[in-house]
Write a structure and sequence with these properties.
CATH topology of the largest domain in chain B: MetI-like fold
Structural class of chain B: mainly alpha
Oligomer: heterodimer
Strand order of the largest sheet of chain A: 6-7-8-3-9-10
Radius of gyration of chain B: 24 Å
Shape of chain B: globular
Distance between the termini of chain A: 48 Å
Number of helices of chain A: 23
CATH architecture of one domain in chain A: 3-Layer(aba) Sandwich
CATH topology of one domain in chain A: Rossmann fold
Largest sheet of chain A: 6 strands, mixed
Number of strands of chain B: 0
Distance between the termini of chain B: 11 Å
Strand content of chain A: 15-25%
Helix content of chain B: over 70%
Order of helices and strands of chain B: HHHHHHHHHHHHHHH
Chain lengths: 548, 330
C-alpha cells in the first residue's frame, strides 16, 4: 500500500477561553489516501472545522495543537517552519470556506484573487492562470465564465461565489482541498448546483478532499468514507454505504433518526372561522423596487403556516409587512378580522402585543449586555405591566416553559448559552407578551439537526398548550414536513402555490414546488447522481444561467 | 458611476449649506467681540465724534443684518472687503494707494500656510501609514511598542517644546536647517523648502501619531475577517496579507483621520508659526483679532471653515470611492 497523503495521529487541540486552555479535539486519528474524499460530520462544537484547519497545519487565534502528529506527504506540519507551510498552503493544500461571500476579499475582483495563488507560488504566470481560471469557471458551470471573473464579490450570487471559491482552491491543482460546510448557507436548489460542480471537479482532477458538514444527506453524496465526531472525539469511521446502512454507534443512529419528527395532521379548518391573521393582496416595495406582488394567505388559530421559498423570494418581507416594520404599498393585514394600521407606529400596544417574532440569529437578536432574566422581563413589564415579585414569577414561569432551569439561567448572559438555548430564550421573549400569533423567521436554520428538532418539538408543545398560531418562514422542507399544517410557496415576491401540507407533498405540484421538493438531499448516496440523470446534467447549468 | 456622482453632488450641496451657516456664526461671533476697531485705534482718550466718524467711514453704524448681507454679497464675488488696519494707515498718510484689500493681505499668507501644510503632509502621511502598517504587521512586538511610545510622546508634548527641542538639535548643535523661517515672495523653491523644514518636522511629529494609530487599529480590526484567513490559507506572506488584503478595506477610516489632520495643519498651526516666525495665516489671524480688524478676522475664519469642510468632503468622497460596492454597483 502506498503512503497516505495525510496522516494525523493522536491529535489534541485546545482553545483558550476564561484564562485557561480547554480541549476541543481529544486525540483523533485521521488518514486520507490520495484522491479520497472523507466526510467529517458532527454537530456544531464537535470540532469539525478545527480539525479540518489542523489538517492544513493551521489554527485560529487562541487555538493550539497540543499533542499528536500531522504529516502531509511526509512533511511534518507541526514542526515545519512558517515559510515551509506557506509554500504548501494554497499550492498543495487548499481551503473552501463556509461563507464565500465573507471569504472573498470585497476589494478585489474574483479573477485577481484567483490568480494570486498560482502567480505568488510560481505555479503559473498571471496570464496563464487567468485563462485557466476561466476554464475552471466553465467546468464548474458558472454562467458567462469568460466575464464573471471580472466582477467584484458583491456582484455575484452566493451559489456562484461558492463555485468561484472552489475554482480558486483548484487554481494550483492541489493534492488536498478542505471543504468547510461549503453549501450550508445556500438554498436547496442552489446547493445541488454547487454539490454536483464540486463533485465533478474533485473527480476530474483526482483531488483528495476533507468534506466538513453537519448535513448527513449532503455528506452521503460527496464522501467515499465518513468520520463522525462528537465533542472532540471520534465516534466511528466507515465507508459511506456501510455507515448509512449499518451504523454501529448509538450516537450515529440517533443522527440518522433525526428527520423522523412529524406532527400528526390536524382536522381541517372549520368553514367560516375568522383567521387570526389574514394577509390580503399585499404589495410592498423597498424604495422604488417592488418586492411583493399581491400576496394573500390566512393563518388560523392553533395552526402553523409554513412559508417556503429561496432567499429573495419575499418570505421575510411578508413578515415585515405583518409586523408593520414595512408598511405595504397596497393591500392590508387583518388581525381577528380587523384591519391593522399599516405602520407599527400607529398600532395600539395591544395590537403590537398580539404579533411577536422569533429571529433566525439568536446571537444577534439578544442584547449581549443584558441577562436572560432581564431580556425576558422587558416585554413582561412593557406589555403586561408586571413589576417586582410578580414580574420575577412570570419570568421564572416562562423559563420553565422553555425548559431552562430559572435559578440557573436567570442571571446568565447570552454569551454563556449554547445556540439552541439562545433560541429558546428568543421563544420565551416572544411568549412573554402573551401573543396569539408568532412569526418564526428561519428559527432553526442556524442550528444543528438534533438541537433544531428540540426547538421544533418545543414550539409544537407550546402551540398545543397555548393555541398559538405560527407563521413559520423556512427554506428547509424537512422542517415544513415536521411542523406545518398549511404551506405557502413563494417565488420572486409572489405566492405560487398554497394549501394543506398533505396536498403540497403529493403530486401534481406546481413546477417550482416540484423543483424545491426534488432538491432536498436524501440519505441515499446515489440520490444526487440519479437526480442529475433525471434532470439531465446540462439542465443544472442552464438553470444557473436562468438565474442571472 | 451615476450613483457615486449623485452622492458627491449631495455632499457638495451639504458642504455649501454648512459653509453658509458657518458664515452666520462667524459674523455674529466676531461682532460680539468686546470693543471695536474705532476704539482700538483711537485709544481711551478719543472723543465720541471721532469714534463715530470712523465707525461711519467703515459702515459700522449700519444694522448687523445689512452689514452681513453686504459682506456676504462681496464674499460670493470674491471680495472680502478692505482691511480696516491698512485703510487706517493709508488715511494717516493721506493716500488711498496703501489701502489693502483683505484678499491682498491674506493671499500670500494663505499660500505660505498651504506650502507648509503640503510639505508636512508629504512627509507625515506616508510616514504615518507606513509606520501603521509595520506596527500592525509586528503587532505587540518591540517595534510596535516603540513606535507607539514615540508617537504618543510627541503628540502629548506641547508644540513649542517640540519646536525648541528640534531647534536645539537641528539648528544649534548640528546646524542643518535654519531656525528662522522668514520666507518671502520670489524665493527659490529649494531655499523655501529648506527654511520651512523645521516647522514642517515639528508638525509632522504632532500629526503622525493620530494617523499611525488609526492605520494600525483599522488594519488589526480586519485581521479576524474570513477573507484574511482565506489569504493566509492561500499561503500569502504576512506582509502581503496586510498590504493587499487588509489595507484596501481599511482605507475609509484612515482617509478620514488623514483629512482631519490636514485640516489641522491649515487651521491650527499658530504656535509653530510664531516660534519659527513663519509668515502664515495663523499669525495674521491672531494679529487681526488684537487690532479688531474685523474683515480680516472674518475672512480667516471663513477660510478655516472652508478648509475643514472641503477636506472632510474630500475624505467622504474618497471613502466612498474606496468602497467597491459603491464604485461597482450590481
Amino acid at each position: 500500500m502506498t503512503e497516505p497523503l495525510l496522516k494525523m495521529r493522536g491529535v489534541k487541540i485546545e482553545g483558550r477561553s476564561d484564562e485557561m486552555w480547554n480541549p476541543i479535539i481529544n486525540g483523533v486519528d485521521l488518514t486520507l489516501a490520495r484522491g479520497e474524499v472523507l466526510g467529517l460530520i458532527g454537530e456544531s462544537g464537535a470540532g469539525k472545522s478545527t480539525l479540518g484547519l489542523a489538517a492544513m497545519g493551521y489554527t485560529r487565534d487562541g487555538v493550539r495543537i497540543s499533542d499528536g502528529t500531522i504529516e502531509f506527504d511526509g512533511i511534518d506540519l507541526l514542526t515545519a517552519s512558517a515559510a515551509v507551510k506557506r509554500e504548501l498552503l494554497g499550492k498543495r493544500i487548499a481551503y473552501v470556506a463556509q461563507s464565500a461571500a465573507a471569504s472573498f476579499n470585497p476589494a478585489h475582483r474574483l479573477i485577481d484573487q484567483h490568480v494570486e495563488g498560482p502567480s505568488q507560488h510560481g505555479v503559473m504566470s498571471r496570464a496563464e492562470s487567468e485563462a485557466d481560471g476561466m476554464e475552471l469557471y466553465r467546468k464548474l458551470r458558472l454562467p458567462n465564465p469568460d466575464e464573471i471573473g471580472f466582477r467584484y464579490p458583491h456582484q455575484v450570487s452566493g451559489g456562484q461565489l461558492q463555485r468561484a471559491m472552489t475554482a480558486m482552491a483548484m487554481s494550483c491543482r492541489p493534492d488536498l482541498i478542505v471543504f468547510d460546510e461549503p453549501t450550508t448557507a445556500l438554498d436547496v436548489t442552489t446547493q445541488i448546483e454547487v454539490l454536483s460542480a464540486i463533485r465533478d471537479i474533485v473527480d476530474q482532477f483526482g483531488t483528495a478532499a476533507i468534506y466538513i458538514t453537519h448535513d448527513l444527506a449532503v455528506v452521503a453524496q460527496m464522501a467515499d468514507r465518513i468520520k463522525v465526531l462528537l465533542k472532540g472525539d471520534e465516534v466511528e469511521t466507515a465507508d459511506t454505504r456501510t455507515m448509512l446502512d449499518a451504523p454501529t454507534q448509538e450516537y450515529t443512529k440517533s443522527l440518522w433518526a433525526v428527520r423522523s419528527f412529524e406532527r400528526p395532521a390536524k382536522p381541517a379548518i372549520a368553514t367560516g372561522a375568522v383567521p387570526v391573521v389574514s394577509v390580503q393582496n399585499v404589495d410592498a416595495a423597498y424604495g422604488t423596487t417592488p418586492v411583493l406582488h399581491d400576496v394573500s394567505f390566512d393563518m388560523h388559530e392553533g395552526r402553523t403556516v409554513a412559508v417556503v421559498g429561496e432567499s429573495g423570494s419575499g418570505k421575510s418581507t411578508t413578515a415585515r409587512c405583518i409586523t408593520g416594520l414595512l408598511p405595504p404599498t397596497s393591500g392590508q393585514i387583518l388581525l381577528d378580522g380587523e384591519a391593522l394600521p399599516a405602520s407599527y407606529k400607529k398600532r395600539s400596544k395591544d395590537q403590537l402585543r398580539q404579533v411577536q417574532m422569533i429571529y433566525q440569529m439568536a446571537d444577534t437578536a439578544l442584547n449581549p449586555r443584558m441577562s436572560i432574566g432581564q431580556i425576558i422581563a422587558r416585554p413582561v413589564q412593557f406589555y403586561l405591566g408586571l413589576t417586582g415579585a410578580a414580574k420575577r414569577k412570570r419570568v421564572d414561569q416562562l423559563l420553565e416553559q422553555i425548559e431552562l432551569e430559572p435559578s440557573e439561567y436567570y442571571n446568565r448572559l447570552p454569551s454563556e448559552l449554547s445556540g439552541g438555548q439562545k433560541q429558546r430564550v428568543g421563544i420565551a421573549r416572544a411568549l412573554a407578551a402573551e401573543p396569539k400569533f408568532i412569526i418564526c423567521d428561519e428559527v432553526t436554520s442556524a442550528l444543528d439537526q438534533l438541537v433544531a428538532e428540540g426547538i421544533l418539538r418545543l414550539l409544537a408543545k407550546l402551540q398545543d398548550d397555548l393555541s398559538l398560531s405560527y407563521m413559520f418562514i423556512t427554506h428547509d422542507l424537512a422542517t415544513v414536513r415536521a411542523i406545518a399544517d398549511e404551506v405557502v410557496v413563494m417565488k420572486d415576491g409572489r405566492v405560487v402555490e398554497q394549501g394543506p401540507k398533505a396536498d403540497m407533498f403529493t403530486p401534481p405540484h406546481h413546477a417550482y414546488t416540484d423543483l424545491l421538493l426534488s432538491s432536498v438531499p436524501e440519505m441515499d448516496p446515489d440520490w444526487l447522481t440519479n437526480l442529475l440523470k433525471e434532470r439531465g446534467v446540462d439542465n443544472v447549468g442552464d438553470a444557473a444561467v436562468d438565474k442571472m | 458611476m451615476d450613483n457615486v456622482l449623485k452622492i458627491i453632488m449631495q455632499r457638495l450641496a451639504l458642504g455649501l449649506l454648512t459653509l453658509l451657516i458657518v458664515s452666520v456664526v462667524i459674523f455674529v461671533a466676531v461682532n460680539m467681540l468686546p470693543g471695536d476697531f474705532a476704539q482700538a485705534i483711537l485709544g481711551q482718550g478719543a472723543t465720541e465724534e471721532s469714534v463715530a466718524a470712523i465707525r461711519r467711514d467703515l459702515g459700522l453704524d449700519q444694522p448687523m443684518i445689512t452689514r452681513y448681507f453686504d459682506w456676504l454679497g462681496g464674499v460670493v464675488q470674491g471680495d472680502f472687503g478692505a482691511s480696516f488696519a491698512s485703510a487706517n494707515a493709508a488715511s494717516f498718510s493721506g493716500t488711498t494707494s496703501g489701502v489693502k484689500t483683505v484678499a491682498q493681505q491674506i493671499g500670500p499668507r494663505f499660500a505660505n500656510t498651504m506650502f507648509l501644510a503640503a510639505v508636512t503632509a508629504v512627509i507625515a502621511v506616508p510616514l504615518a501609514v507606513t509606520l501603521g502598517i509595520l506596527a500592525a504587521l509586528y503587532r505587540n512586538s518591540v517595534f510596535d511598542r516603540a513606535a507607539n511610545i514615540f508617537t504618543l510622546t510627541s503628540i502629548s508634548s506641547p508644540e513649542f517644546f517640540l519646536a525648541y527641542v528640534l531647534i536645539l538639535f537641528l539648528a544649534v548643535l548640528n546646524p542643518i536647517f535654519p531656525s528662522l523661517s522668514n520666507i518671502y515672495d520670489g524665493m527659490a523653491f529649494s531655499e523655501r523648502l529648506n527654511k520651512s523644514m523645521l516647522p514642517a518636522l515639528v508638525l509632522t511629529l504632532v500629526v503622525t501619531a493620530h494617523m499611525m494609530r488609526m492605520t494600525r487599529a483599522a488594519i488589526i480590526n480586519l485581521l479576524a475577517s474570513p477573507y484574511i484567513e482565506m489569504a493566509r490559507l492561500k499561503g500569502m506572506s504576512p506582509m502581503r496579507v496586510i498590504v493587499k488584503h487588509a489595507l484596501p478595506n481599511a482605507l475609509a477610516p484612515i482617509i478620514n483621520v488623514v483629512a482631519l489632520n490636514l485640516a489641522y495643519l491649515i487651521t491650527g498651526v499658530v504656535v509653530v508659526e510664531v516660534v519659527f516666525v513663519y509668515p502664515g495665516i495663523g499669525q495674521l489671524f491672531v494679529d487681526s483679532v488684537k487690532t479688531r480688524d474685523i474683515p480680516v478676522v472674518q475672512a480667516c475664519c471663513l477660510i478655516f471653515a472652508a478648509a475643514y469642510i472641503l477636506l472632510n468632503l474630500t475624505a467622504d468622497i474618497m471613502s466612498i470611492l474606496s468602497n467597491p460596492r459603491l464604485r461597482h454597483p450590481k
